[in-house]
Design a protein that fits this description.
single chain, alpha+beta, 3-stranded antiparallel beta sheet
Length: about 325
């Protein structure tokens, strides 16, 4: 029997008792008391019926929900898995000791508290390193070297165990290696060759640096000489030398130009003398007469000589070509 059935049976019993009492004594006070009591019983019965319409709570359901929340909290706190993102490798450590296996990209189950994972990037990275050196002729050089490098994915665990993460790789390995290789390569060339043979210098630095860091599991992808600068005094000396060379070239050009002009004048004078000589040698009455006719404007002179000859027509070439008598 549930709570609602019990309330209904109680209500029927009390109703019968009230009817019997009501039939025996009909006083005004008893009627008012019975009416009040019946009203209260009816109200209480209605209240119990309304409460019985709600579902009865299930303790197992509440226990399951609480257990699920507790498990989620434990998973969040201890994380029994490791996620390795793209371009990374996971270094597995058991109680702080580096293990032999390297985790690839993806999700991997681990034992919380016992096992931890350190993610290292295997992507190509770029670092700018400043280096100072001296040339073969003892000129100070400052050089900015840009390096593209990455760690060997298969050796990620040994690299982390011996060196550390990416920042420690740059500080402990790359910076001193670049400084030493730049000094060794620059000492083989003088200042002028460092500028004119920049490609050869870059290739030598690239090859030597690759050999030097390969033993640590680091691979060099490319080396770029971003900037090469010399001391201020050397720069001034180079500028002065270039100015002197330009002035010497200009003076040489002016001298060559004057010499060519003088030679040209000599050649023109020789040409004129040779032309006059040839003209005197080949001068004939017919040529003189032809030249006079070519220069004649077609008008006869107003005054003619007594013998009636025309000027410049009957000319003796011997008289023209012979030099004038000395006084």
């Amino acid at each position: 029997m549930n709570l609602s059935q019990f309330s209904l049976s109680l209500f029927s019993i009390e109703t019968d008792a009230v009817d019997r009492l009501y039939s025996r004594q009909r006083t005004a006070n008893q009627v008012r008391w019975v009416d009040r009591y019946l009203l209260e019983v009816k109200l209480e019965t209605i209240k119990m019926k309304s409460m019985s319409s709600y579902p009865t709570p299930n303790p197992k359901l509440y226990a399951a929900i609480g257990g699920g929340i507790f498990i989620l909290i434990l998973l969040f706190m201890f994380r029994p898995f490791a996620i390795i993102n793209a371009g990374e490798r996971g270094v597995v450590m058991k109680f702080g000791k580096v293990q032999d296996r390297v985790l690839d990209e993806g999700i991997h189950p681990i034992v919380p508290v016992v096992t931890s994972v350190k993610a290292l990037s295997v992507r190509v990275q770029k670092n700018d390193i400043a280096a100072e050196a001296s040339s073969k002729d003892l000129q100070g050089i400052k050089m900015d070297v840009a390096i593209n490098w990455h760690i060997n994915p298969q050796q990620a665990n040994s690299i982390f165990q011996q060196i550390g993460d990416e920042t420690e790789i740059v500080q402990r390995i790359l910076n001193p290696a670049v400084s030493e290789v730049v000094k060794a390569a620059s000492a083989k060339k003088n200042a002028e060759e460092i500028i004119t043979k920049r490609t050869e210098l870059k290739e030598e630095i690239d090859n030597e640096l690759e050999k030097r860091v390969a033993t640590y599991g680091i691979e060099i992808d490319d080396v770029s000489l971003v900037n090469i600068s010399f001391s201020p005094d050397f720069v001034k000396a180079i500028e002065a030398k270039q100015i002197a060379e330009q002035e010497a070239k200009r003076a040489s050009f002016e001298a060559l130009k004057a010499e060519q002009q003088a030679q040209s004048e000599i050649n023109r004078a020789k040409g004129k003398a040779e032309a006059q000589r040839l003209l005197r040698t080949n001068l004939t009455p017919e040529i003189l007469q032809q030249q006079a006719i070519d220069k004649w404007d077609g008008k006869f002179p107003a005054v003619m000589g007594g013998d009636g000859t025309l000027p410049l027509i009957n000319i003796n070439p011997d008289a023209v070509s012979s030099p004038a008598p000395q006084q």
